[in-house]
Amino acid sequence: MKLYISRFILGALFLFTQFISAQSFSKNQFKVKGNCEMCKTRIEGAAKKAGAKKAVYSIDLQTLTIETDKVSTDDILKKVAEAGHDNEKFKASDDVYKSLPGCCLYDRDLQPEQAESHHEHHTNTAAPAKKDNEFYVRGNCASCKARIEKAAKNAGADLAEWNADKQTVILNFDSSKTSSDKILKSIADAGHDNEKYKASDDVYNGLPGCCLYDRDFAFGEANPKVHYEEETKHEGHKEHQTPSNDEPQSKHEKNIEGVVVTGSKAATSVSKKETGLVFNIDKKELLKAACCNLSESFETNATVDVSFSNAVTGTKQLKMLGLDQKYTSLTKEQLPEIRGLASAYGLNFIPGRWIESIQLTKGGSTVTNGYESITGQINTELLKNAKTPETSLNLFSDFNGRAEINITNVSPINDKWSQTFLLHGNGTFGNTDMNDDGFLDRPKGTQINAAYLLNYNDLEKSGFGSHFGINFIRDERTAGQIGFDKNLAQDKQPAYGVGIDISRFQVWNKTGYVFKGKPYQSIGWMNQYVYHQQDSFFGLRNYAGKQHTYYSNLIFESVLGNTNHKYKAGASFLYDGYEENYLIDNMKRNEIVPGIFAEYTLTGLKYTLVAGTRVDFHNLAGTQFTPRVNFKYDFTPQTILRLSAGRGFRTANVFAENQQYFASNRAINILPNGGNIYGLKPEIAWNYGASLQQEFKLFGRKSSIIADFFRTDFQDQVLVDLDRSPQQLTFYNLDGKSFANSFQTQWDFTPFKNFDVRLAYKYYDVQADYIDGRREVPFMAKHRGFVNLAYSTNKNDKGGFWSFDTTLNWVGKQRLPDMAGNPAEFQLPVYSNSYAVLNAQISKNFNKKLRAYLGGENLTSYYQKNAIIDFKNPFGNYFDGGMVYAPIMKANFYVGLDVTF
């Protein structure tokens, strides 16, 4: 019956999207002058009041697309002109034009035909010819024009005429009284980047919203928004270095034409445009620490907590909003990535040098990405963007026997096709035992990881774009006692050993189409297949698993009337085939989940509302309804409030997700509750959040504070009970309440040039009703502190500079599992001690092609001395390597080299 229902809904959704795209209105596109979002709202409103069925204005293209079946387009365009906006058929009266807000005073000298060339997307980066007295200056609107020309005249120019189309200013001046240098510096001081000087971030951020031009481009491009040249090797260096006033003027004036001014994005930033609380982490942030893989990508990030999962396998896990990694959706290229059997070790399968950027969303994410996100989403984007061929080599080694090599090549094939080759290999060869318990502090072994990406982009002409990827991983690890001999049979082993062999293959494709003449309407289809196999043993216990996953997601996006009302609708399909073997138990199951979803976005002048819902028809967990809503209100451009609420559900993979406890002699005990997956019901939770983002100036420089509170309430949960008995690992469904409260405040500021400071404090209250009563969830500190300092020197003539980065994490006391059933010498205290971990790194960029770095982790050398309970008797009843709350290794140092060809 459910299958018929799902087919009916999918069919209805298909007919609905066809109906939306097949309306038989006459469709026309006209040139209309405007500057900003206020213009857009005014133009579309005037057109709709005049009788347009749909009216969509593009600021970039300077076009108004109209759909009408009764009123003539002339009548509509006349109303648009009466509202103050010149167009190709009617011109606004001077009185109405002058009454517009300052940010809306577009350049009336620019004819509609010229506007097309000004806003049309170009990929040719050749600078157009300019005169000797003509200089590149950035700006947007009439307000910019007035400011630029006034600054030039204040600096002594007799005549200054700025052209928005060419992004240039023509200067006439008496060289005996002033100079082009002095004039351009005055223009930069007024907030406008030019070919010789860059405006300070503080002055730029103080401009009106309509004047905040795109700073990331090379001067002379036809459309500066398309081309972006980033100083990728200048980690943490957030300001372009203008020449010192002490330098000779001749040095200032050389290479006037063809000068490229580059803008450097902040290494980590909070998107002010996103409705949800989204942190954008640039690859420059990843270079601040020993980022060997995704698990180490958040060492300089205050939102995500990273910790060792046990004292034997050496793997790390993430926690967010006070809950385990499994409640966060971990995606790669917006496709499901670390889930199922990959939960325990998947963080090791995305090398840090492969990562182009990370988007971290706190709280429930969009319904278009699935139903599993409860505490948020972490999406990783791989390297795939380059204008010229670039090959990079990274060599890494620490002082305890770990070595790594990364080779990446990103290159365009032609103007539409580009490709990426990614190769990673690592090996751990030394016997590291810093606490002298006879066990390796981290496993030995090797990993080979290779990927190929192929990209097609022809959105401007045909409207099509596509991305293809393939990835293969082979990972082998051996851990346990130092005397373990993996060549002996398990039952012949005198020593305790752990072996983990993983093979993983995945292939994916994302294809999209943007409808011609409708930049607001598109359709995209994502598909992915994953095969994952793990063969492992922990002492005398065997665990093996296979997983086949197929995922498909179809999304249609368009508008309702105008772009203030957007919607997305689509359908998804997920298949998970699992086969697991634990000791003598063989467990098989297939999860089949078709689903449909819809999402509506309402945009006002100061607010954005995103409301969505999805329905998924899970063959084992039943029909699940997942609503989510996000709201953003801009009190001012510097004060932003966000609210969110949403539901998520997931099925628990109790074996794969709890392998950190396999390195013990705990017996697994599942208390069934009538569910269809291990006898357990699915996990369901609601997440609510609020955040306030405030920007201000400190020491004359930009500063920001973000405070957020999130609460997660479980409607149902699979509890992992470590307290019931120290010889048992018990799983059962929640009977009562389980919640997690998370409060975080983060302050970012720059006391002086090139020195960035990030301070954060987090408070967690995580409790659950276990069988014997409500308790704090173990291994979760209530209080955490964070300090990150980053400083870089000015660049020299060759582009070289030094960078210094350090991060201090303070972790408060944590409740530890009740071990009262053990003899006194094998018991744990009720709470752990608090501790601090200090990481630091020094790097030297010799030029844009060569970088060397030296760093240290856990420089405080705090470590858990008794990380393994009863380590002398690993086959006894009390042996337990899963009771880890702190680092298990003392200070570790590393060196590395980056070379770009």
From TrEMBL:
In the UniProt record, the signal sequence range is 1-22
Q: Where in the cell is it found?
A: Cell outer membrane
Q: Where is the TonB-dependent receptor-like beta-barrel domain?
A: 431-859
Q: Which residue windows does the record flag with biased composition (Basic and acidic residues)? A: 228-241
**Major place of localization?**
membrane
| Any GO BP | siderophore transmembrane transport
Give Gene Ontology CC terms. cell outer membrane
- One matching Pfam family, short form? TonB_dep_Rec_b-barrel
Query: Which Gene3D superfamilies is this protein grouped with?
Result: 3.30.70.100, TonB-dependent receptor, beta-barrel domain, TonB-dependent receptor, plug domain
According to UniProt, the name of this protein is TonB-dependent receptor
- Its source organism is Chryseobacterium artocarpi
